[in-house]
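Hey team,

Filing this mostly as a record. A colleague (T.K.) asked me to run one chain through the structure pipeline before their review meeting, and I want the input and output archived in the tracker in case anyone asks later how it was produced. No errors, nothing strange. Just documentation.

Input sequence:
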Amino acid sequence: MKVYEMIFSPTGGTKKAADFFTDRFAPEHICIDLADRHLDFSSFVLEEGDICVAAVPSYGGRVPKPAVERIRQMKGNGARAIVLVVYGNREFEDTMAEWGDALEEAGFCPVAGVAAVAEHSIMHQFANGRPDGQDKEELERFAEIIRRRMEDGCILGKPEFPGNRPYKEYHGIPMKPKADKNCLKCGICASACPTGAIPEEEPAGTDHGKCISCMRCIAVCPNHFRSVNKALLAASVQKLKKACGGRKGNFLFGMGEE
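Output structure:
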């Protein structure tokens, strides 16, 4: 039996939440970066006895399209999956349902799920600093419950994840990062972009048709020369201030609900 941690985490928030869970569930595990467009995802073939923690962020209540496309290239072969979704203190809407469905279509068997809060990848004042110590305790406790039940040979079934089918329409995010005039054209952002939206021959540019506004290019730029439009950002903050206010909780689905 092998344990895999499969993560789409452009700015690190999803990875942090997934690591809290997976490190307690199985300290020895294999990591697969679903944001790495250079990987051949069809080469990942799991076995029935394997277990995976599959983690994605919620983008406007949906799963990022590249994560769905890449998981569908893999072969789950009945491996059990813990479905982990991270949201930025607003709502995760159809993300749990869609991610669970995508995993099932790829041959995985979802047996539990978590919707965890992490700092918003664009508007960092929302859920700032999360997942924090309290979140860590909740995720680790849930991981212990799942591991113990698996070790006890409990019969596991797919939880009922919240969400609508058909899923809500997603029209993208209008904020597209761009480089300023000081860009050194080092190419770090172009190499790291999950969708290839930054031309390697001209890394100061951005292909808006390919960009999913994941903000990885901003996160990896060593000189902070990439950013989003400040006016659009300020307007978005005002729009989401009420919906993202207050401390939202983590949701546990399946085996760990008791």
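Quick notes for T.K.: The mean pLDDT is 93. The radius of gyration is 18 Å.
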